Amino acid sequence: MTRIGITGGIGSGKTYVCHLLQQRGIPVYHCDDEAKRLMTQSTTIRKQLSQLIGNDIYINNELNKPRIAAFLFANEDNAAQVNAIVHPVVRQDFLRWTKRQHSPIVVQECALLFESGFQDTVDVTVEVFAPHDLRLQRAIQRDHATAEQIQARMAQQMDEDEKRQRADFCILNDGTDLETQLDQLLHEIERISSK
Q: Residue 90 and residue 8: Cα distance in Å, rounded?
């Protein structure tokens, strides 16, 4: 089994690229979605978040989203503390998930692939890239946010040039043909894996 890690900045289109791969029958593990699920379901995360933030982090057995958001955006150290609790559980969940798959290729979609160290859980890394202005426009429309809000979130992520340098492959998502790029990517991964 070959595990592909797909990352990219806000508005790059990494989720859309993963959707196209799912349409080809390739299983995809969405780290953001699974982290949200685990923040409610994992007793380890629940206990540690309650100790860190307070018992009001959960209300009626559900994550208190305004409370966690306020904590996360209060300062950078808070986000790092929450990530230190959540990321190890997500990592283990992904590894368990891969063992249940019966596909020669699986994908992990992870916005913070390099920042979280999750590149160590995959065999191949792929950066989905789009020009800054296009990413900004997409994110504003998708999230119904202001340009300032999106730019602040972009500033918290790793620089796109650094991600491209770290990634094994890059997919350009600026309106060019994604299907052809995915054909080439999968062909190259198959060639490398068969060595």
A: 18
